[in-house]
């Protein structure tokens, strides 16, 4: 790609222009939040999914990855500082807009958006997820280097508590008929670190469309689920086993062994007013599960 020369110089500008961060704003998470808030002011044709995926990168690299996802018909770029003309001989090749947008500090009037910007769905969910994580920092945060407490053990140890007052709710509106269940503490989705040792599995869960907590598992009702889509109130268990490599008899055995846990997860999710979906990598795996229990929702994951 011909973005590289422009990107390299803009990264140098970015390093020079960035002031020393305060202790409370250091690290990738602060950079991710800043990038999400910056991107929320722009129109995206993909709802901001590319931005969410690349938000932990420096802003110029994020722009390089996602520039083509912008709604260019609604944006005007003006090199008001003259920086892009000087910064890169490739600017003319890739368009002045890329260089202007990737600059570490966008000058006033450099980027003009036509019409009202509605924050992309994926960006809004990522910002909401960030706020949720910090609403319960002692449970969700490793930002201070502290060990994350095990809510699963806590739920098993403590009796079910009475519902909290409605004023303390922070989840989306609950389904009719189940407000008390939803308000119980164990039904709050708490982001917790992925279980280690299976990076491909975790990557697959993180890439799930509209995942509200990419990079995290979610603890609900004493169970650690692989993903949560808040907009549809759906909890996911992701299966990345090489199911198709086994013969039919082994496939049937494997599906039967895993079935009780899937059924238990479904009960736990539904007890808190959530839907439950099993993600698999092949149509054969989907068919095997549905043959054993056709009440389970199974989806073939075409993104991993």
UniProtKB/TrEMBL annotation:
<feature type="region of interest" description="Disordered">
    <location>
        <begin position="141"/>
        <end position="203"/>
    </location>
</feature>
<dbReference type="Pfam" id="PF19829">
    <property type="entry name" value="DUF6310"/>
</dbReference>
<feature type="signal peptide">
    <location>
        <begin position="1"/>
        <end position="17"/>
    </location>
</feature>
<keyword id="KW-0732">Signal</keyword>
<protein>
    <recommendedName>
        <fullName>DUF6310 domain-containing protein</fullName>
    </recommendedName>
</protein>
<feature type="compositionally biased region" description="Basic and acidic residues">
    <location>
        <begin position="149"/>
        <end position="163"/>
    </location>
</feature>
<dbReference type="InterPro" id="IPR046277">
    <property type="entry name" value="DUF6310"/>
</dbReference>
<feature type="domain" description="DUF6310">
    <location>
        <begin position="180"/>
        <end position="304"/>
    </location>
</feature>
